[in-house]
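Entry 14. Ran structure prediction on the chain below.
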Amino acid sequence: MMDAIHSGAWLLATDTPALPSAGVMRLGLTVGWALVLALLGAGLGFKLVAGARRLLALALALWTLVPGPASPDYWLGLAFHAPSLSAMLLCAWGLQRLLFAPPHQAGAAPVPSAPLWLLALGVLPGYALMLDTFAALPLQIYAWGFSPLALLCLLAVSLLPGLRRRRPPAWGVPEVWVAPAALLLFAATRLPTGNVWDALTDPWLWLFLNGVLLRALFRRWRGARLREPRV
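Output, structure tokens:
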């Protein structure tokens, strides 16, 4: 019995986390901010012709390859470290939609649509981590993110959206594949910090999801008001 307990204790261990190598961390930092800047450029220039949007996105992405303080990822990395793997995947999805979608689908930067319960599931961990930062919780949630058990549990939870869908999940539906893909990439690379929470979310992505959730709640409230019978 004791041998089984000791053999399974590594699942809960947080004192010896597997961290990314310096080279992989630097690569993740550059690629992450390159995707973010490229999406921002393509989104702000969505009224331009497709060729101009692609050149703008490419120029902003290549700017991160400039060495030293002349590169934007140098300063962004100092201020915010690296984007989460989920944010990188969402930026890649958004770039594909903005730069390579058919002409009839071209438009402003796409915003993923998801059920309210799934948006809440993506937002609530951010509040828990914020409370953990101020030591307002009895548990150390962020430290638990260094344990192998956290990766296994979160990977199981991330599969719920795909299992709940009546039809087979499509690659073009980000709420189905972003979280599992981010966790699998984390298992292979340990990016960006070796903590699974940093792979799933970051402050900017969390604020973005809060905005998407508030917009969805407002639309549902407005739709309910419109359906109310007038006296």
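Residues 1-6 have pLDDT under 50 and may be disordered. Will compare against last week's run tomorrow.
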